[in-house]
């Protein structure tokens, strides 16, 4: 009888733990997608300048992460502090500038696709044995970006936005690759935010836009402290409990969530090309991940 009760209790605990992990993962993905929505909301109507948004976001994120690191009473460690800070700075600046001219969903899709392509190129340079399925998946993801970009108005602002978001994706991809070797990802992220802050602040001052409003400051602070700082902290807390493939697949939801957020909160249209591009990118990356998992099993 006691043994039976023990089994039931363990099963119940396992179910609760799984549900909790799923809920925390979903919350984190929503936080990542919210960065796109908050940035677009703030800069599209001129509530705050793009580079000013980036500066406030980095400052709020550095403050939130610094408090978390101090509370855990451990030092700030990073094996590649300056390289990580440069990559993070490129991501932050490119991300904010892009949302002057493109929608939240389209921007997240370009960012996400560029990150995956960056990871793929890094694997090639490292001499990794790339399975056929991953080649096909990467080609599909790239095709999705071509479909999306090919339908964007070829104005100077749109072209600049695409280049800016691609640069942001490159920066985030490099930052993620550097972070794989970090023994303390949270501490390393805090160091990167702190080191990136002066550069981003100088860029904001040099832009001379001076666009500030209470609404813009609130949105940028939320993006920095809540959906970036605390979002990253939560992600690093649950990563050890996720399989690598599960973690990668979870991030596939970010462009979709960003597009839904753009429709709901900004009134952005759902176009056929955005839908097709999303299917190609998400499907391609999913194929690549599954192919890698099958190769690992063999």
UniProtKB/TrEMBL annotation:
It is found in: Membrane. Its main location: membrane. It comes from the Bacteria. The keyword Cytoplasm does not apply. GO terms for cellular component: membrane. InterPro entries: AA-Vitamin_Transporters (IPR050638), EamA_dom (IPR000620), EmrE-like (IPR037185). Residues 159-287 form the EamA domain. The chain crosses the membrane at residues 21-38, 50-70, 135-152, 158-178, 190-212, 218-239, 272-289. The keyword Transmembrane applies. Pfam families: EamA. This is DMT family transporter. The lineage of its organism: Bacteria, Pseudomonadati, Pseudomonadota, Alphaproteobacteria, Rhodobacterales.
